[in-house]
Amino acid sequence: MAIIILVGPPGAGKGTQAARLVEQYGFAWVSTGDTLRQNIKSNTLLGQKARSYMDAGKLVPDDLLVDMLKAELSNHPKKVTLLDGYPRNAVQAETLSGLGELGAVRLALHLDVPASILSSRISKRSAEEGRSDDTPEKLKVRLDVYEKETFPILNYYKKKNLYARVDADASMETVYSRIQEVLTKATLI
Ligand code: ADP
User: Distance, CA 85 to ligand 1 centroid (Å)?
Assistant: First the structure.
């Protein structure tokens, strides 16, 4: 199975763009954030363990996520899977490349947005969805985590020639067509 990983800071629009791609191209979609929130809602053991990290805007420990990731990836025996929210650090990038039988990363799609515009996007989402990690203080923690831990993994994919950047500081429509261009070039659509 081919995997497209979506990488970008909180508020970059990963979920919005993923939903459109799923609708238009029938991709499978795995969102670790959404799956973790479902686990919290259903009060599973994983949900109970993950909750405090998520509420604080911190990363959930890597070892808690491996089984969840494997299950999610094997749930979707479709051709192309969008992986949204994973990997978020170097250890997770290695974990993912070790899951060869479940899928190989074909592209790391970087939705690049300047930090300065993220807070207004997120406060809007916070008002609409009421997510407990969308407050300004927690956003700051999540942005910090992104810059220190997640952003550097893009280099890992650059070295493997799997990196593509999309300037995501534009309307949803424009960003979507930029993504389509990149996916066309990579012969994924
Ligand atoms: P966003 O991309 O807007 O920050 P997500 O919905 O992807 O939000 O993730 C929300 C929270 O879920 C993260 O802040 C983190 O606590 C947890 N989480 C999601 N994916 C991972 C992951 N791969 N590793 C560790 N924690 C994760």
Answer: 6
| Ligand 1 atom having least distance to the Cα of 86 | 23
User: Could you tell me which residues come within 8 angstroms of residue 70 by beta carbon, excluding any fewer than 6 positions away?
Assistant: 99, 102
Please list, residue by residue across 69-108, b when 16 or more beta carbons sit within 10 angstroms of its beta carbon and e when fewer do: beebbeebeeebbbbbbbbbbeebbebbeebeebbebbbb
Question: What pLDDT is attached to residue 117?
Answer: 84
Looking at residues 24-52, what average pLDDT do you find?
97
The whole-angstrom separation of Cα 37 and Cα 39 is 5
- What was the pLDDT predicted at 78? 67
Q: Is the pTM of this model over 0.85?
A: yes
- Domains, in order of start, for the chain: 2-185 (3.40.50.300)
The pLDDT value recorded for residue 137 is 85
CA of 33 to the centre of ligand 1 (A): 5
How many angstroms separate the CA atoms of 19 and 27, rounded? 9
In eight-state DSSP terms, residue 102 is G
Out of 37-51, 101-115, 134-148, least confident range = 134-148
CA distances from 16 to 11, 32, 125, 168 (A): 10, 15, 11, 12
Centroid of ligand 1 to alpha carbon of 87 (angstroms)? 10
